[in-house]
Design a protein that fits this description.
Structural class: alpha/beta
Shape: globular
Bound molecules: manganese (II) ion
CATH class of one domain: Alpha Beta
Distance between the termini: 22 Å
C-alpha cells in the first residue's frame, strides 16, 4: 500500500503546488486527494489545473469538487451568476486564461466537471467543506459538502467511524486543524498561510508557499 496524501485548497497558487509536489515526490503506488478549490483568488488557476491534469502520470489522483469549481460551472450554465463569482475571485481565474471564459480549454472544463463530491478509503472520508455526521456520504446535502464553514457548525464524528478530512475553512498560522475525528488541511495558501499536504496515515506533513518555497513539518 502506498501513501494516501490530502492536499488542501490551492486557489490558483501554482508555484506552491509545483514545489509541494516536488517535495512529496509522488510514487506510482500512492494516492493524492486534492480537496477542491483549485481556482480563484490566486494568480494562476490555469497553471494549477495544468499540473493536476498531469498528476496521473505520477500517482493515482482523486480530485474533489470545491465551491469555487461549482461557481465556475454555474457561470458556464448561466452568465447571470458571473457577478457573484467575480466577487469570489473569479476575476483572477479569467485573467489566468487571457481574460475570456471562452478561452478555458476543453480538457480543463472536462477536469472540473469530473471532480467528485466525496471520497472514502477504509479509514478516512474526504469532503471539501463539511458533512452531516449522521448520514452516509451518498446522502449529504450540497450546502454542507461545498459551502458550510466549520465555524458555522463543527461536525461530530461521522457515523462510519472514519476520520473526516476537509478543506474550505482557512486555518490560521499555517496550522492543520486536528480534532481527531475531523482534520482540516486548508491552511490559507492564497492569503498569508501556506499549502499543506498531509499523509493521513503517518501524519507526515509537507507545506509550501505561493513564492514556491517548501518544507517538511516537524511532527
Ligand atoms: Mn471552498
Amino acid at each position: 500500500m502506498g501513501r494516501t496524501i490530502a492536499i488542501g485548497d490551492i486557489h490558483g497558487c501554482s508555484k506552491a503546488l509545483e514545489s509541494l509536489l516536488r517535495r512529496i515526490a509522488p510514487a506510482a503506488d500512492g494516492l493524492i486527494i486534492t480537496m477542491g478549490d483549485y481556482i480563484d483568488r490566486g494568480p494562476d488557476s490555469r497553471g494549477v489545473i495544468d499540473q493536476l491534469l498531469r498528476l496521473p502520470e505520477m500517482c493515482r489522483h482523486i480530485a474533489l469538487m470545491g465551491n469555487h469549481e461549482i461557481m465556475l460551472l454555474a457561470v458556464l450554465q448561466d452568465s447571470t451568476h458571473s457577478p457573484f463569482w467575480m466577487q469570489c475571485g473569479g476575476r483572477e481565474t479569467i485573467e489566468s486564461y487571457g481574460g475570456d471564459i471562452e478561452n478555458v480549454p476543453e480538457d480543463h472544463l472536462h477536469f472540473v466537471r469530473g471532480c467528485l463530491p466525496h471520497y472514502e478509503t477504509e479509514s478516512h472520508l474526504f469532503v471539501h467543506a463539511n458533512y452531516n455526521a449522521g448520514a452516509p456520504l451518498e446522502e449529504q446535502e450540497d450546502e454542507l459538502l461545498y459551502w458550510r464553514h466549520l465555524s458555522q457548525g463543527l461536525p461530530g464524528p461521522h457515523e462510519s467511524g472514519k476520520i473526516a478530512v476537509v478543506g474550505h475553512t482557512p486555518q490560521p498560522g499555517g496550522r492543520v486543524l486536528d480534532l481527531d475525528h475531523v482534520v482540516c488541511v486548508d491552511t490559507f495558501c492564497f492569503g498569508d498561510g501556506c499549502l499543506t499536504a498531509l499523509d493521513v496515515d503517518s501524519r507526515e506533513t509537507w507545506q509550501s508557499n505561493k513564492q514556491g518555497q517548501s518544507w517538511v513539518l516537524d511532527s
